[in-house]
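DATA SHEET
Item: assembly model
Revision: 1
Owner: S.N.
Input lines:
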Amino acid sequence: MARRGLAAEAAGTAVSPSRTVTLRISRENPADARGGERGFSVHKVPVEKWTTVLDAILDVKKHIDHSVAVRYSCRQATCGSCGMLINGRPRLACFTKIDELGADTVTVEPMKNFPVVRDLVVGFERLFEAHRGVKPYVVGAGGSGGPPGAAEAAPQTPEELERFVQFSACIKCGLCNSACPTMATDSSFVGPQALAQAYRYVADSRDKGREERLKIIDESHGIWRCHFAGSCSQVCPKGVDPAMGIQLLRGYLLGFRK
Amino acid sequence: MRESTIMRIHYGTALGAVALVAVHVLFRFTQDFSDSLQYESVIANYQFLPYAGLLEIILVLLSIHGFNGLRVVLLELRQGRAYEKAVSYGCLAAMFAVIAYGSRTIIMASAGTVS
Amino acid sequence: MPGSGAAGGEGGAGRRNMGGIKGMADPRGYGIERVAYWLMRLSGLGLLAYFVAHIYETSNILRGRAGWDEMLATTQTTEGHVLLAVVIGMCVFHTANGVRLMLGHGGLGVGRPARPDYPYAPLSQGARHKIGIYSSIVLAAAASMYGLAVMFGEVH
């Protein structure tokens, strides 16, 4: 049945009735001089079929409690800022519709395995340090002196590009590190994000830093602490599949890949 | 030793142990299970030198694999230079202790020096 | 590499917000692969404990017939048989899943990199590895039951 006000091509689209869900937001301020105890603030928020978790949090922030701390930017799963635990699973708040959770209560908490800055905001220092540690750039023929200059730029075949392009989609949101069981206890582990990026450059036909990079990850808290539980790949919002990259990377170290 | 070398040894000992433990288990089925555990039968097994050699190899392979696995689990639980050193050397010591104790049984039983 | 220090379990969480032992050991929420990770770790530790106990158990042969029979009397009980059946199950699971993991660690069966399409089903978590995990569990259960049948004298 056609509805008044809808464009002709959208007339067949059923308009969902709005409903209300309970949004539980983890509240914590470690910098608070009173000890920064953790708790939850509970809000009833109206949601539509298209309402994302980030929309709901921002709704609370705008209309109910502006002190809620949340990091976000692009609102389209590109910047990787709004990673958090949503009903116990690491997800991007901007990429998760409340409707698809199928629950009347939505609990949002800061990502596990990251230090809490405030409320839903976590510190990314460790992730970025590990990421930098694997030399996330194409190493030129001159060794580890940084990316190649224009003179060293080399063309690639589509097949060569295909070997690593999937891993270039990483937005450094940290969901994989949050889901990883090794990261839960091993504070020195490189982590799936950095390991997948190591593979991205090792598999790049232009890169001359393979040996150096393999040496970096071949240590006691490096690639061997991955046990292929695959949780990283299950939560990746960009289809990077870090578990695949890590196993392929390990193939180089075991001599199965050249 | 590089971690990749250690893990290659981990995989190698696993594969070796799987094959040899299968033989070890099949030996229990050369006769009725409860009969195979009788004193005479077990002594005869030990005094059959190829089988004693097989037991010794299994002992070494499983000790290496098992205690390296334990080292990995413990290294992932806590970190810190002193702790990690203690775990690595502790697991190595435990591995040698188990190999020594097990070898003593195999050597003495196969040599017939049983009280 | 990134900072070091005790990760701790629940006690070490708090501001650092580490998942801790609970986060590592909880097999729920991430599918059968996470269950397999947990079972692999648990069976490995269990088998190591059994291995050490078995080395001690068999050393009783050096005490002669009396010592050996005494040891048999304490292990050849209903509880002992059930424990051994669990060990058989752990051994079979650890072996079969270990072979799957070794193949995976070598990059076999994890798929080929390709441009991902929404909804981004990860190729590394594909049917091949899932079948490997379920087969390992089924084999372990079957081996345990066969072991029980042999130990309780139903099968010779």
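QC remark: The longest helix of chain B spans residues 81-111.
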